[in-house]
Amino acid sequence: MEHIKAICQSNAISDQNISPLSGGDINDTYKITTSQEAYVIKINQAKRFPKMFELEAKSLEMLAETNSFVIPEVIAHGDFEKYTYLILEFIDSDQPRNPAESFAVALAKLHQNKSDHFGLEFNNYIGRLAQYNLPQKATALEFHIDLRLEPQFKLAHQNGFEFEGLDNFYKNLETIIPEESASLIHGDLWAGNHLFTPTQACIFDPAIGFAPREMDLAMMKLFGGYSPEIFKIYNDIFPLESDWDSRTKLWQLYYILVHLNLFGSSYYGQAKQIISQYQ
Question: Which residue among 116, 188, 205, 243 is the active-site one?
Answer without folding.
Answer: 188
